[in-house]
Amino acid sequence: MSGTALENIPETGDMAPETTVTVGLEARSYPIRIGAGILATAGAALSARLPGRRFVIITDETVAGLHLPTLEQALSKAGRHTLGAAIVLPPGEESKSFSRLEEVLDTLLARGIERKTVLLALGGGVMGDLVGFAAAIALRGLDFVQIPTTLLAQVDSSVGGKTGINTHHGKNLVGAFHQPRLVLADTATLTTLPLRDRRAGYAEVVKYGLIDQPGFFTWLETRGAAVLANDPAAVAEAVAVSCRAKAAIVSQDERESGVRALLNLGHTFGHAFEALCHFDDRLRHGEAVGLGIALAFALSARLGFCPPAEAERVNRHLAAMGLPLSPADVPGLPWGESGCVAACLDAMGHDKKMADGRLTFILARGIGKAFATADIPMAEVQALLETLN
Ligand code: NAD
Ligand code: GLY
């Protein structure tokens, strides 16, 4: 299998107006096109990649109001047709549900989709995950294209083919691996994204530096504020480096039997906090990941894997970027109430990364030195959580 070599990732420098990163998966390889303003030329990009195909756009109400007209105009300018009007769903994590999935599938089938129909997922990670899963199962598999409009989706969720929905048992517990045919990441769409969502996406950006790219983390320490402030060059660099890092990992381990697990840095704690908030608006997925990253480094330092100074450096950067370091810092997260530590441990027990009844944690020996382990005593995790009360 081919992939993008990690050692070729630039750590600084000017970005070309458009960058293409390839996810190398042999016959299922696909390009991620990254650039400011590329949504306006999406019709040409789709025609080149998927000639002669008909599209259905699926998006959420917020993104429909901001960016759907640009995509629709781009398609009509290129003489491309959609099968009916865009399907527009309510925004938010609640849309990653069985009921919304059923609604999408019903609408698609009522419109007479064919195997060659292509779904266009326009929006953040919620739309990407839901539409990708609908594409995986409708008529036993349709092609789909990711058109991510949040920082989180541009650097993470639109790449790698993980799709799915939540159930009342936990997050992302029903889904499929289904790779998109193309990713179109228009970084200019991020200018309409609220700061809270830019911060949430930033947690996934910093994750790549912490996993195995200390040079990128150092770059973020000086340029992270510019990324959050939507500086075009800083955003383009951060999205491109993140996509290269993710593409390299996915190319080696598409189905998460090895190195891909490292992409779950911060997620074991993060998903538990999301569950405590019932996946609602109190805690964004990226905010939960940021919190989880801080706790993964705290646990690593507590267990003697990571020098405390490195964990403190991570905390300083997360705090400087406005991300929470403790569940006690998150308004609305039910922390400090009796039973909250037990509830958190219980939620972790529903994580899909359980193997033989043991939880896999992604910990670190330092910045850029993440590793996976299933040998962490839960008493230590409990003790760490109790220090946060
Ligand atoms: P989201 O899709 O809910 O988007 C956040 C909010 O931003 C929504 O209200 C949306 O309407 C709005 N929005 C989107 N684009 C906008 C824009 N350009 N301007 C203004 N508002 C805009 O959330 P998200 O943070 O993008 O994604 C989180 C989801 O991604 C979670 O469900 C998580 O599980 C999933 N995820 C999946 C993967 C994967 O590999 N599949 C990886 C990471 C996260
Ligand atoms: N976001 C984790 C993964 O794609 O594997």
What are the segments in which pLDDT stays under 50 over at least 5 consecutive residues? 1-15
Measured by DSSP, the beta-strand proportion falls in 15-25%
The total count of strands amounts to 13
Overall mean pLDDT score?
Answer: 93
User: How many strands, what sense, and barrel or not for the largest sheet?
Assistant: 7 strands, mixed
Beginning-to-end CA distance, first to last residue: 47 Å
Which of globular, elongated, flat, extended, rod-shaped describes the shape? globular
Q: Strand order, biggest sheet?
A: 1-2-9-6-5-3-4
Give the names of the bound compounds. nicotinamide-adenine-dinucleotide, glycine
What is the alpha-carbon Rg in Å?
Answer: 20 Å
The total of helices stands at 14
Q: Structural class given helices, strands, pairing?
A: alpha/beta
The string of secondary-structure elements, in order, is EEHEHHEHEHEHEEEHHHHHHHEEEEH
* Approximate helicity band: 40-55%
Structure, briefly:
With 389 residues, this protein is of the alpha/beta class. It is built from 14 helices and 13 strands. Helix 10 crosses helix 13 (340-348).
Descriptive report:
This protein is an alpha/beta fold and 389 residues long. Helices cover 44% and strands 16% of the residues. The chain has 14 helices and 13 strands. The chain has helices at 42-49, 61-66, 68-77, 98-110, 125-137, 151-157, 195-212, 214-228, 232-252, 267-276, 285-302, 308-320, 340-348, 378-387; strands at residues 18-23, 30-35, 55-60, 87-89, 118-123, 143-148, 162-167, 170-177, 182-186, 354-355, 358-359, 361-364, 370-373. The strands form four sheets. A seven-stranded mixed β-sheet has the order 1-2-9-6-5-3-4, sandwiched between helices. α1 (42-49) crosses α3 (68-77) and α10 (267-276) crosses α13. The radius of gyration is 20 Å and the shape is globular. Nicotinamide-adenine-dinucleotide binds at residues 60, 62-63, 66, 91-93, 96, 123-127, 129, 149-150, 152-153, 156-157, 160, 162, 172, 189-190, 192-193, 197, 200, 284-286.
